[in-house]
Amino acid sequence: MTILRAIERFFSIVASAFLFCIMLLVSADVFMRYALSKPFSFTYDLVATYLLVGIFFLGLSETHAWRAHVSVESLIHACPPQIQRLAAMMSNLVGIALFGAICWFTATRTMQEYTFGNVLTGEIPWPAWTSIVMAPLGSGLLTLRLICELLLLASGKTIAEVTENPSAGSNGVVEIRGFE
Amino acid sequence: MTVFFGIGLLFVLLAIGAPVGFAMGFSGLFGLIISGHAQVISGILSTSPISTVSSFEMITVPMFLLMAEFVLLSGIADDLFKAAATFLGRLPGGLGMATAVAGAGFGAICGTSTASAATLASTSLPAMIRQGYEPEMASGVVAISGTLSMLLPTSIALIVFGLLAQVDIGRLLIAGIVPALLVMITIMATVFLLAILHPERAPAPARVPWKERWILLRRVGPMIALFLTVTGVIYSGLATPPEASAVGALGALVFAAARGRVNRVSLLHALRRAAHGTCMIAMIIVGAILFGYFLTLSFVTQDLVAWVGSLDTSRWVILILILVGYLILGSFMDQMAILVLTVPIVMPMIRSLGFDPIWFGILKIVTAEVGMITPPIGLNCYVVARYSGRRPEEVFRGTLPHFIAHLIAIAILLAVPSLALWLPSRIGN
Q1: How far apart are CA A139 and CA A104, in angstroms?
Q2: pTM for this model (two decimals)
Q3: Is the omega angle on the peptide bond into residue B19 within 30 degrees of 0, that is, cis?
Q4: Is pLDDT above 60 for A137?
Q5: Residues B176-186: b if buried by 16+ CB within 10 A, e if exposed
Q6: Of chain A residues 85-144, which have a CB less than 8 A from chain B?
Q7: At what angle do helices B20-34 and B335-352 cross, to 10 degrees?
Q8: Do B372 and A70 make contact, defined as CB atoms within 8 angstroms?
């Protein structure tokens, strides 16, 4: 779990750096367009194909670890802790199936793009696999986290003990969520 | 029959508390398998999650979230409330009305309702209580004023609606401005009436000299400039909403830095929180897209649209029923979850009934505002309770008059669509 947390933290910092880059790059692009009539030719490709994909997939696992994904908790919070733990295990199984499949299919696509040497159809012919590879990396890391959490829950740990958010399993909704 | 299995599984997974994005994605895949479309899954999973998050429009989500984080970091809300209070404070319920104005001003640069409510709860609520305001009334006006963020440009809820409903996000953001003003006036009128009926619940503060008023107004000048920049470039067509959002985030960072609030730790914290928010929103959109494949291939939406079209009922009755459904859902479901679960199904219906999707989007978001203060899960009330140390029941009771007033505001928006549609029709003119 310690190694997993370290990788998650590293990925999250990279995702945060990508966020900062988008802000600077898009703002600079607007400035260049109006002040010098010379917008960057690579902004769209770099932001959409690399940075946005990176923010989502690299931040995916830590977002789950912090229980920042939206869920409907009003019903399950009314149940006893044992039922809540069982429900969390089922929820983890669902996540493992979904993200395991996404990891597998995007990894296969990455290998294909690499083998055939495909490039992106934009202003700059970047190798396609360099963008897509973030999908199996991020979804694979989330799958690993979900497996670890499932094993810990099965061994008798509580929901609060397996997450990075101490208020999870009670009403952690106010603590961490609220992006509406 | 397979449709019911897919949708039934979705509801079971939601009930056990699975993240909405996970539940929708998994149910969608399950639905595709049992309906005999398993062969398309590898193609969908290897392309769809990546293509969904790599649309240029998607930039608005992380950038407005980041802008909100930097605005929170700057601590502007306190000055904003003080400035509004010096001008409105002497009127009956003046500090409550100033809270609504501060909520609108803050909401214009911070597009998340809960962040807005939390900020108002730690700035204007203590000021009102110090002044002798009844805590129930004061916390109620704070909780409802926070929801104004959902209607103003930079609103994350409007952007998510726009991405799901595939409507022009620039027009949608501009469309929210007049309804937001209407809602702000509704809140102010409610507070005014309450203060007239029960003056002891909202005593007036001492008069503030004009010199001090101008000093406070000058301090909020950069915030007004930031709002005008973001809204102005979208309205004039000088920049797209994604570009405006990035410039807004940079402006907010410069503003927070100028106030000496930015250091390495606070910057990283703001970036990580915005990254988490982006992942959360992108995840539910990815889940909705995966579930959407199942709905499309099983013809559920088309069948539903055809069925609604065959009904011998006025389209206005159907629209009102949909809005009432949203109000009921809002009392026990998260607003993001409601958006992602309903918009892909409701929007084709709205279009087939001949209603404007942008106008409907605004109506939907106003019902979401009501959901943010409706028990048992009205999130803003819990936020205010938490940040002010008051009991949630007290805050819920305080929002009751605003709940009723909001229903009147919804009726006005329903009766006069041009309130939402006039401003976007002027974009670029």
Answers
A1: 9
A2: 0.85
A3: no
A4: yes
A5: bbbbbebbbbb
A6: 87-88, 90-91, 94-95, 97-98, 101-102, 105-106, 108-109, 131-132, 135, 139
A7: 50
A8: no
